[in-house]
Amino acid sequence: MGSSVIWFWFWFVALLILLPCLTVTAKQTYIVHMNHHHKPLSYATHHDWYSAHLQSLTSTSDSLLYTYTTAYNGFAASLDPDQAQSLRQSASVIGVYEESVYTLHTTRTPKFLGLDTELGLWTGHTPQELNQASQDVIIGVLDTGVWPESKSFDDSGMPDVPALWKGQCESGIDFKPSLCNKKLVGARSFSKGYHMASGNDPKKTIENMSPRDQDGHGTHTASTAAGSQVANASLLGYASGIARGMATRARVATYKVCWRTGCFGSDILAGMDRAIMDGVDVLSLSLGGGSVPYYRDTIAIGAFTAMEMGIFVSCSAGNSGPSKESLANMAPWIMTVGAGTLDRDFPAYASLGNGHRFTGVSLYSGQGMGAKPVALVYDKNSKSSGNLCLPGSLEPEFVRGKVVVCDRGINARIEKGAVVREAGGVGMILANTAATGEELVGDSHLIPAVAVGMKVGDLIREYVRSDSNPTAVLSFGGTVLNVRPSPVVAAFSSRGPNLVTPEILKPDVIGPGVNILAAWSEAVGPSGVQNDNRKTQFNIISGTSMSCPHISGLAALLKAAHPDWSPSAIKSALMTTAYTLDNMNSTLRDAAGGAFSTPWAHGSGHVDPHKALSPGLVYDISTQDYIAFLCSLDYTIEHVQAIVKRPGITCSRKFTDPGQLNYPSFSVLFGKSRVVRYTRELTNVGAAESVYDVAMDGPPTVGVTVKPSRLVFRNVGEKQQYTVTFVSKGGVNPMARNAFGSIIWNNAQHQVRSPIAYAWTQL
């Protein structure tokens, strides 16, 4: 045997022996829940104590990413699985959890909601008085940052920042603290979780670590909540007019927690922690994850502390509709917001060679394709994904010089147009499928493009299939107002029932979330795709991300008008005054199929700010009530402590049923028992000597009894209870298993309405 062969086998065997020793287990971010009150006196701070815990496990000094002070008792750290398991053995450690990754839920709205000043008095307040009061309210927006130069953050005429405000504007490579002002009062960024997930690789973290918005989403949501009035705003001529937020005189503080690869739980918790300490009054989060128990839900945990400190928390419901059970952010102390349409549209037209002209929508603003019809194609080849216009799926020989029909789904709508353009196509008809039904969302396409609903899409697909020489020409109709019916529930808006706690009806309300104009980052084009070099100060986008800040801004107005109201009272006011009839006086419809919507899609209904300012009665909920609710779930006391974060928590008081929480809506589950009974408590925030009578509606399969049927409130602030008994009568359709109704407390001035969702879990 030659010497070279001997050496080969020597090194091969040596490598096999050494390989296990050389294996490096990848680290990841863990969030560690500590028993806060176990800190030995020898440590000056909890930070020192946490650091010592980590140093016993790892030799690296940079493992500790964040120490949480208010939103959570614990810290975030970079650990390998063995180190995480070692931490779990400590008596001072309650839990160690892998970090979750959350996603973003991506001018006419104030008028649509009745917020224009010409409408005169709000109950007891002129708009000017309300604006003045809202100058003391600060909305914290956790998102992708902010474009501070936007006119929506102009502070002209605003007084000094409230003295109690502790926030600041952080310095960054592209962000000077001086960019903040009396309107934009804070701007911070949190990126340690993002860096850790990227392996601390500079090539993967190409964004500047600063509060500046490189995405556009954060600027859009912040200006929707509280943007100043800006005249002559539009997206390349669309939706031209005055752009303004819901609370134009409220202040804004932004917390950048979302980056190109997502929003990381450790960063979100750090942002919430800091926002609470800074002194925000409202928290707005247009992002979310899946359905997990509350003690594993980063946002729910941080929001509980915020609620305890009087901070209203508004979150988007998610964009996973119309599938059932698709909601995010379901904790009862969070306002869960779905999306509806406005009475504004952007019509576009597809004229076919057979003489048919179909109406769709578009925000295309280029030169167009002229009036001459061109060939129309649809790549319905079962062996390819050309029908979806996925990247690389279209053959240039097939589409060059033609209009292409693309099925909606899988990839981004605007990306489909870019794929068509790259293959040589001159236009696109974006056709819905069953998943999105008749919902139409306008996009700022890079080529002439028209979006159409499923029914029209099917007709166009059939025309292409059956005609020997199909042609089309696309044209664009600008902006149209007073569209009927509106609002309509957006098909993308996530739906109930609530998977985490089925006894709590979610979403809570819907707000405007389709084709919303608001401020935009000038670092990115309106389409958001990489090769879009257009610049615009405003953009029109859709999502529950857009509806959430509408409610955040409205909550700021309610907080200004009623500074003594709790977050639960504000939430109740927005829910019990929401409407369920559209502008044709018909029950709200669902864009997914055109049928009537249900509370699993619209919750209590569409928000009505005027009525919410004077709701008459509210369902208030204390921190102790929420603890009793948590204790009614199948949680350990450690799980409850993870959320409540206070010593000595016991479950001496607990509900027999989570649905006993004093919630402004009802979710009734009929299981083994045919009878469900709940007691609710109403607080009078209207006039003294107010009398309310009850009215009910619902399916014939359920009997509803309310006692007493009349409530008399002698004083303002007085509380009265009522008990409602639901009895399943039988005769339920086994295929349906659910139904809906409502309870309304009425007098001449007010209607205090609570929706009811019924579900039969056993038949």
From TrEMBL:
Identify which residues the record assigns to the active site.
Answer: 143 (charge relay system), 217 (charge relay system), 545 (charge relay system)
- Which source organism? Davidia involucrata (Dove tree)
Quote the protein name from its UniProt record. Answer: Subtilisin-like protease
Q: Where is the signal peptide?
A: 1-26
Q: Which GO terms describe its cellular component?
A: extracellular region
Q: Where is the Subtilisin-like protease fibronectin type-III domain?
A: 660-757
* Residue span(s) of domain Peptidase S8/S53: 135-581
Where is this protein found?
Secreted
Q: Where is this region: Disordered?
A: 196-225
Residue ranges of every copy of the PA domain listed in the record: 385-459
GO MF assignments: serine-type endopeptidase activity
- Every copy of the Inhibitor I9 domain together lies at 29-105
Protein family (similarity comment): Belongs to the peptidase S8 family.
| Gene3D superfamilies listed in its UniProt record | 2.60.40.2310, 3.50.30.30, Peptidase S8 propeptide/proteinase inhibitor I9, Peptidase S8/S53 domain
